[in-house]
Amino acid sequence: TNALEIKGLRKVYKGGFEALKGIDLTVKEGDFYALLGPNGAGKSTTIGVISSLVNKTEGQVSVFGYDLDTQLADLKRQIGLVPQEFNFNQFETVRQIVVNQAGYYGVPRKLAHQRSEKYLKQLGLWDKRDQPARALSGGMKRRLMIARALLHEPKLLILDEPTAGVDIELRRSMWDYLTQINKEGITIILTTHYLEEAETLCRNIGIIDAGRIVENTSIKKLLTQL
Ligand code: ADP
Ligand code: ADP
Q1: What pLDDT is stored for residue 167 in this prediction?
Q2: How many angstroms separate the CA atoms of 150 and 105, rounded?
Q3: Is residue 177 within 8 Å of residue 184, measured between CB atoms?
Q4: Euclidean distance between CA atoms 73 and 16, whole angstroms
Q5: Which UniProt keywords apply (predicted)?
Q6: With CB atoms 3.0 to 4.6 Å apart as the test, which of 21, 131, 161, 188 could cross-link to 211 if both were Cys?
Q7: Which H, E and C letters describe 193-205, residue by residue?
Q8: Tell me, what DSSP letter sits at residue 57?
């Protein structure tokens, strides 16, 4: 099975703006896939539809074989989402934010605590576990969202511009971390507007522009074309 299959996806926002104009996209299990494109191309909209935060207008989406329209609960369990904006409660502690995610996925409390320790340690946030999230730096907040997204151990991790506004040193360590968990078997899709990020991390790439996929290829092939 494929990690993601999208066929003929269209999104028309209220007011009539057509953000996605018929997108076809397949991401294989185990892949590290970049959706690359300029601001306004439709990357966040695409991710929003896959993770069921944005209603689609037309088309089919399935994740590990689960259909968005008919098997939504199963589909959601496959996905860990790291959104672009910090959407956690800034007054909760780092550990609370991660552990509370368990409630959405039926992860037992004890297991949630074990996993939060594991992921917070891996992401260098364990020392901050009892701090309110607002006390963290921007890069730490981004890593916190990664830990939260991994709590239910999804098979597909989706990150929307994960290193936007992150300094180069931290960016490298985030890249290393994502590469490592991809090697351990998790499929990753990220959006970016840096070719360098796609080039460093990803195996395959879709280039999106003005709501259309204009290229869908491997990084290797893309680089020999440039
Ligand atoms: P990207 O993530 O590639 O920057 P987006 O998916 O955020 O692009 O946006 C694609 C287009 O859809 C943009 O022109 C944006 O202004 C528009 N758009 C995004 N969200 C909405 C919305 N809620 N209502 C109307 N238009 C929107
Ligand atoms: P509040 O809005 O008071 O902060 P919520 O219970 O709405 O509390 O959300 C808590 C956190 O969990 C937020 O960061 C939110 O983005 C995230 N969240 C909310 N609903 C879901 C969901 N269905 N699946 C995954 N994460 C969610």
Answers
A1: 86
A2: 11
A3: no
A4: 29
A5: ATP-binding, Nucleotide-binding, Transport
A6: 21
A7: CCHHHHHHHCCEE
A8: S
Is 104 near ligand 2, meaning CB less than 6 Å away? yes
**What angle, rounded to 10 degrees, do the helices at 138-150 and 109-122 form?**
140
Q: Which residues contact 206 (CB under 8 A, 6 or more apart)?
A: 25, 33, 34, 35, 36, 213, 215, 216
Candidate of 89, 95, 146, 160 to mutate for ligand 2, largest count of ligand atoms within 8 Å of Cβ: 89
| Ligand nearest to the CA of residue 42, numbered in listed order | 1
Residue 48's identity, in one-letter code, is: G
pLDDT value, residue 148? 98
Ligand 2 neighbourhood includes 13 CB (under 6 angstroms): no
Coil, strand or helix: which one is 126?
helix
ipTM strictly over 0.90?
no
Instruction: Give the pTM.
Output: 0.89
Nearest CA to ligand 1 atom 27: 13
Structure tokens at 35: 């959706």
Across the 226 residues of the chain, what is the mean pLDDT of every consecutive 10-residue run? 97 97 97 96 97 97 98 97 95 98 95 98 97 95 97 98 87 94 98 92 96 95 85
Helix segments in the chain, DSSP class H: 43-50, 72-78, 94-100, 102-105, 109-122, 138-150, 168-183, 195-201, 219-225
